[in-house]
From TrEMBL:
Organism lineage string: Bacteria, Bacillati, Actinomycetota, Actinomycetes, Propionibacteriales
Sorted UniProt keywords: Nucleotidyltransferase, Transferase
Record-given protein name: Glucose-1-phosphate cytidylyltransferase
Domain Nucleotidyl transferase as annotated: residue spans: 2-230
Organism annotation: Kribbella yunnanensis
UniProt xrefs under SUPFAM superfamilies: Nucleotide-diphospho-sugar transferases
GO function terms (MF aspect): nucleotidyltransferase activity
Stored InterPro entries: G1P_cyt_trans-like, NTP_transferase_dom, Nucleotide-diphossugar_trans
Length: 276
């Protein structure tokens, strides 16, 4: 199943200067957050990606064109470095389509512009490219396929760092509550979408702001509640928190790493030579 990733935004809250990398290329550990999102999907067997590029698209292309498997995989070096045998591989089975969808393009229009690459797909996945989760995507996909909805979104509680302020007509504060304690949900940025979405998504429109309300009005949009791990990377503070999790070795979104530990890191049956 193909995965459409919207990675063409400016990410202004993450940028420290005009030369900063685009937000999807901001790193967690040794890899960009975009890689972590893609690796999450690959864990569930979804290895065909369509990247909707915009601002900083050349940086995304360059990264994958010069991809170094040895950065995140164990390997055996022989002949003084002339031969590298990988013990595992990240992207050797991935198929990535890079599509320039414009600089100031809405999410919905980016999706419309990659429609030709989805013509043979009844269902596809989509993601903002800057949010991480441990949600069971295999179960979510199975559920949506068997239902009559056109699309689903992952619904998550709001971040605890926000507080709701309660006050009266005299502006005196009567209460403060963490947003996470309220019975509200926000869009988590992980979508399962059927091809019928293009019947309600018009040129130049937004996916969530325009098409989804139309689906909601006819009962064709479903929220998938998730109480597990979910974290965005919209700000430098959020990136720092993810870095701390990464350094601690927890990495709750890295389901593939958990699987690797359970399989005891078995050697691939055929050597993969990546350097000469």
């Amino acid at each position: 199943m193909k995965v459409v990733i919207f990675c063409g935004g400016f990410g202004l809250r993450m940028r420290s200067g005009v030369d900063s990398a685009p937000k999807p290329m901001m790193t967690i550990g040794d890899r960009p957050v975009l890689w972590h999102v893609m690796r999450y999907y690959a864990h569930f067997g979804h290895t065909e990606f369509i990247l909707c590029l915009g601002f900083g698209g050349s940086a995304v292309k360059e990264y994958f064109l010069r991809y170094e498997e040895t950065v995140s995989n164990d390997f055996v070096m022989t002949k003084g470095g002339q031969r590298i045998e990988l013990l595992d591989s990240d992207i050797s089975e991935w198929k990535i389509t890079f599509v320039d969808t414009g600089i100031d393009t809405s999410i919905g229009e980016r999706l419309r512009r990659v429609r030709p690459y989805l013509e043979d797909d009844d269902v596809f996945l989509a993601n903002y490219g800057d949010v991480l989760t441990d949600a069971p995507m295999d179960k979510i996909v199975d559920h949506v396929i068997s239902s009559d909805v056109t699309a689903s979104l992952l619904a998550v509680p709001p971040q605890a760092s926000f507080h709701v302020v309660e006050f009266g007509t005299d502006s005196r504060v009567t209460g403060l509550r963490s947003a996470a304690d309220l019975n509200v949900w926000i869009n988590g940025g992980y979508f399962v979408i059927k091809k019928e979405i293009f019947d309600v998504l018009n040129e130049g429109e937004d996916l969530v702001g325009d098409a989804f309300p139309r689906l909601s009005a006819v009962g064709k949009l479903e929220a998938i509640p998730h109480h597990g791990f979910w974290a965005p990377m919209d700000t430098l503070k959020e990136r720092s928190q993810l870095e701390e999790l990464y350094r601690s070795g927890k990495k709750p979104w890295a389901l593939w790493a958990h699987e690797n530990r359970r399989s005891n890191g078995q050697l691939s049956t055929e050597p993969v030579v990546v350097a000469l």
